[in-house]
Design brief:
Keywords: Signal
Number of helices: 4
CATH superfamily: Hypothetical protein apc22750. Chain B
Protein name: Excinuclease ATPase subunit
CATH class: Alpha Beta
Strand content: 25-35%
Largest sheet: 6 strands, mixed
Signal peptide: 1-23
Number of strands: 6
CATH architecture: 2-Layer Sandwich
Radius of gyration: 21 Å
Number of domains: 1
Length: 152
Amino acid sequence: MKNIGMKKCIAAIGLAVISMAVAAQSEARDTRLLLSIDEAMNTPAAKEKLDPSIRFVFAGQSHARTTRDFGNFVTNKKTNAFNKSDEEACRWVMLSALLSLQDRVKSEGGNAVVNIESYYDRQPMASSTQYECHAGMLMAGVALRGDVVTLP
C-alpha cells in the first residue's frame, strides 16, 4: 500500500514539473506582429461597438485643427489568446484598446483621438496603416497612445 501512495506522489510531482515547463515555454513566446488598422476597425464587433461619432486618427493621417486638447493618454490591453490565431487575438485586443480610448474621449468630453500610435513596452511605433501587437501562447497585447481632442 505504501508503494502505491509513493508512486502517486512521484507522478503528481512529475506532472507539476511538466506543467511548469509548458507554462514557461508558452509565456516565453512573444511574437511581434504588425497588422492592418483598417481590418481591425472593420470587423463586425468593431462596427458594432465603436461609436461612429468618435474619430480615431492614426499617426500621419491629416485632421482638422483641434479646438480643444484634453491630453495624451495610453491604454495597454491584454487578452486571452489561448486556442486563437495570433491575428484573431490581436484584432480582439486592438478593439479593446480602441474601446478604452473611446471611453476616455467620452469621459473627457472630446470627440476624437488623434496622433494614435502603437506604444508597446513604451516604444512608439507610428503608422497610419498598421498597429503593433505582441502574441504569445496564452496572451496577446496591444498598447496605444493618442491625444484626446475636440475636432470641429
